[in-house]
C-alpha cells in the first residue's frame, strides 16, 4: 500500500501539469488530475509497471478525465 502511495505522489505534479496544459484553468486541472490519480490507484498493474508505462497510463487517464470534466463544466455553463 505504501509503495502505491509513493508511486502516486511521484506522479502528482505530472498529472496536474498534463491537465493544466489541456484545460488551461487551475481548478478543473486539479480536479482532473485528482480523478486520474484515483483511477490510477485502482489500476492493478501500477506496482509492476515501469515508469514509462505508468506515464502512458497516467496520460491516458488525465486526458479522459479532462475531457469528461470539460464536458460537465460546459453543460453547467449552458
Note down, in words, how this protein is organized.
The chain is an all-alpha fold and 78 residues long. The chain has helices at residues 2-23, 26-41, 51-77. The chain has one domain (2-77). The longest helix has 27 residues, at 51-77.
Features:
mainly alpha; 3 helices
Dominant shape: elongated
Helical residue percent band: over 70%
Order of helices and strands: HHH
**Over the alpha carbons, how many angstroms does the gyration radius reach?**
13 Å
Estimated share of beta-strand residues: under 5%
- The tally of domains stands at 1
What is the mean pLDDT?
87
For the sheet with most strands, the description reads: none
**Gap between N and C termini:** 42 Å
Number of strands: 0
Question: Regarding quaternary structure, how should these chains be classified?
Answer: single chain
Unreliable stretches covering 5 or more consecutive residues: none
Structural class: mainly alpha
Helix count equals 3
